[in-house]
Amino acid sequence: DGGITQSPKYLFRKEGQNVTLSCEQNLNHDAMYWYRQDPGQGLRLIYYSQIVNDFQKGDIAEGYSVSREKKESFPLTVTSAQKNPTAFYLCASSLAMAGGYEQYFGPGTRLTVT
Amino acid sequence: GENVEQHPSTLSVQEGDSAVIKCTYSDSASNYFPWYKQELGKRPQLIIDIRSNVGEKKDQRIAVTLNKTAKHFSLHITETQPEDSAVYFCAASISGADYKLSFGAGTTVTVRA
Q1: What distance in Å separates the CA atoms of residue B93 and residue A19, rounded to the nearest whole number?
Q2: Residue B6 phi, psi (nearest 5)
Q3: Of the candidates B43, B89, B98, which has its C-beta nearest A97's C-beta?
């Protein structure tokens, strides 16, 4: 289970506040991803990055922002513009994006916004 | 974009019986189909995958079949055991520059002792 970590495990915020979720990997993977998991909806892609200093919007990017300044790190900021931020957030990484390499997931962060 | 539908949403089987989960995809250009297993409170993990150049792949008690014409693929678990209880997700991606995965909604499998 090692190799990709997320912190914290649980996060509580008040409405209107931005919050940043951490994701770090030591697998030397080029590609990193952020997914949102809601009951009955599977995993939905928020943002992904194929290489340092480059990232693209996924299917539900509105209200989120990311950065990729280091290969090992891909933090996700949930902004106050995200209408329904309470969810389970999963970070993943893979050796590369092209070619269908296995994605390795972190343990997740459960965000609750009240 | 790709749309993946997964059925059933829940599945209860007697220990030792088989379990089958089916997924359909919309984009005929999709050519990579992984299956992930997520045990309660744990992270998703890849259990098997298949590419469009083969019709079936097996790994011990699990197998995946692919029908490109009908655009559907299935996960088969034989001789189910309690540790097979989990949520299973299928996914599909289109080869090319990014291989973004589109996931199904998941199937909660419960193996009854």
Answers
A1: 30
A2: -130, 135
A3: B98
Residue B8 and residue B32 in contact, taking contact as beta carbons nearer than 8 Å: no
A99: contact with B, CB 8 A cutoff: yes
What digits encode the pLDDT tens for the residues A49-98?
A: 999 999 999 999 999 999 999 999 999 999 999 999 999 999 999 988 77
Asked if B43 and A58 come within 8 Å (Cβ–Cβ), the reply is no
Beta bridge partners of A43: A37
Provide DSSP, chain A: -TTEEEE-SEEEE-TT--EEEEEEE-S--SEEEEEEE-TTS-EEEEEEEEETTEEEE-TT-TTEEE--SBTTB--EEE-TT-S---EEEEEEEES-STT-PPPEE---EEEEE-
**B65-108 pLDDT tens trace:** 999 999 999 999 999 999 999 999 999 987 665 678 999 999 99
**Residue with more model confidence, A15 or A101:** A15
- Residue B94: its H or E element: strand B86-94
